[in-house]
Amino acid sequence: MSLRIDHHADPRADPRADPRTAHRTGHRTRHRRLVALTLVVLLALVLVVAVLSAGIGQYPVAPRDVVGAVLRAWGAGGAPSDPDARFVDQVVTGIRLPRVALALVVGAALAAAGTLMQAVFANPLAEPAVIGVSSGAALGASSTVVLGWVSAGLWVTPTAAFACGLVTTLLVYGLSRSGGKTEVVTLVLTGIAVNAVAGAGIALLTFLADTQAREQIVFWQMGSINGALWTDVAVALPIVVVGVGGAALLVRELDLLALGERSASHLGVDVERLRIVAIVLVALLVGAGVAFTGIIAFVGLVVPHLLRMVVGPSHGGLLATSTVAGALLVLVADTAARVVVPNADLPLGLLTSLVGGPFFFWLLRRTRRRAGGWA
User: Fold this and answer.
1) Which long-range contacts (CB under 8 A, 24 or more apart) does 366-375 make?
2) Which of 63, 76, 132, 195 is the Cys-Cys partner for 168 at CB 3.0 to 4.6 Å?
3) Are 117 and 126 in contact (CB under 8 A)?
4) What confidence score (pLDDT) does residue 21 get?
5) Which range among 21-25, 181-185, 221-225 shows the weakest confidence by mean pLDDT?
6) Measured between alpha carbons, how far is residue 26 from residues 10, 16, 134, 363, 367 in Å?
7) Cα torsion for 147, 152, 153, 154, to the nearest 10°?
8) pLDDT for position 375
9) Quick one: DSSP state of residue 180?
10) What is the pLDDT of residue 103?
11) Secondary structure of residue 213 in the 3-state scheme
């Protein structure tokens, strides 16, 4: 006599029949849909704002003409015979589109770096400036201006800024290690100390510089994308792609790290190696961004925190949406910087600080209220 086993009689025999499993599966499906919808909306906004931004300036260009210039640049149409049309093509593809592209690249880099920092520190108030990469880059750029190295070529200042930012980050990490481990509190305090030293170095260089060099240092610290070139984009883009791609490979381990260092270690995560890789990626991303634009504050703090409210704490969707949203934010801010003051180009870093400062204050009060105080 054969015994027939009904697998559907017991929910434990078929995981698909377990209500808890079905609930988790449904939650993951809804989360993926939310992330996908958010990405589609953000990408659509990026496209619209990019077209509008390329047409805004002292010589306004209609969106239709911007699209036509882009298509002709890609070989979709022949060269225009009208001199005015040729001038529009030169303005759009030679001046404004490089600025738009660099704004997108820098914004994506800063937001991705901020996402990594908040994940590694397990704190939504963390930002890349904590590890000294921005102050180190500013020190390197200021040194080239004061020493007169800028006359050697356009690439001297960005190269020095990127190298000094990376070296400063590695210095902060090396000084904060003790017994083969790195505590987050020690890393933060070391970053504060190194930032203070770098700030003093910048102040000394500003004091020693002549009037012209002093103006260049101050303007670089304010941050600006004015004068962007396609060569800048060609150098920054591969570094940012590598940085974002490397961050994408860490999302699973970052999700486990959110459970706590001890729990992550029990689940097979090498916390120290993860922290090293994340900090190096942050240095690459921020260094590539600020090297060509100067210091642009608060992007790495504001964007990941806002997107966490929308798509949740899972780092896969958070990284993807934050990267696109950061690109959009910097592009919008740069466009606003060109139109806020008539016939002037407001420094981008100044504008982001004016907006990001009050937001940071609100975030501090919100976090303190939820935690019931800092004590």
Assistant:
1) 367/124, 367/125
2) 132
3) yes
4) 63
5) 21-25
6) 21, 11, 42, 32, 30
7) 0
8) 46
9) T
10) 95
11) helix
The SS3 call for residue 127 is coil
Q: What is the CA radius of gyration of the chain?
A: 24
Residue 2 reports pLDDT greater than 60: no
Cβ neighbours for 126, distance < 8 A, ≥ 6 positions apart: 114, 117, 118, 120, 301
Helix (H) or strand (E) holding 253: helix 251-257
Count CB atoms within 10 A of the CB of residue 245: 11
pTM as predicted = 0.85
| Percent of all residues in the chain with a pLDDT value above 70, rounded to a whole number | 89
According to the 3-state scheme, what is the secondary structure of 93-128? HHHHHHHHHHHHHHHHHHHHHHHHHHHHHCCCCCCH
| DSSP 8-state assignment for residue 152 | G
Helix (H, G, I), strand (E, B) or coil at 344: coil
Beta bridge partners of 182: 177
Cα first-last separation, the chain: 71
* Amino acid found at 358: P
Q: Is 19 exposed, middle or buried (0-12, 13-18, 19+ CB in 10 A)?
A: exposed
What does the pLDDT look like over 102-131, one tens digit per residue? Answer: 999 999 999 999 999 889 888 777 788 878
pLDDT of residue 25: 73
Taking the C-alpha atoms of residue 120 and residue 257, their distance in angstroms, rounded to an integer, is 8
Q: How far apart are CA 271 and CA 254, in angstroms?
A: 9
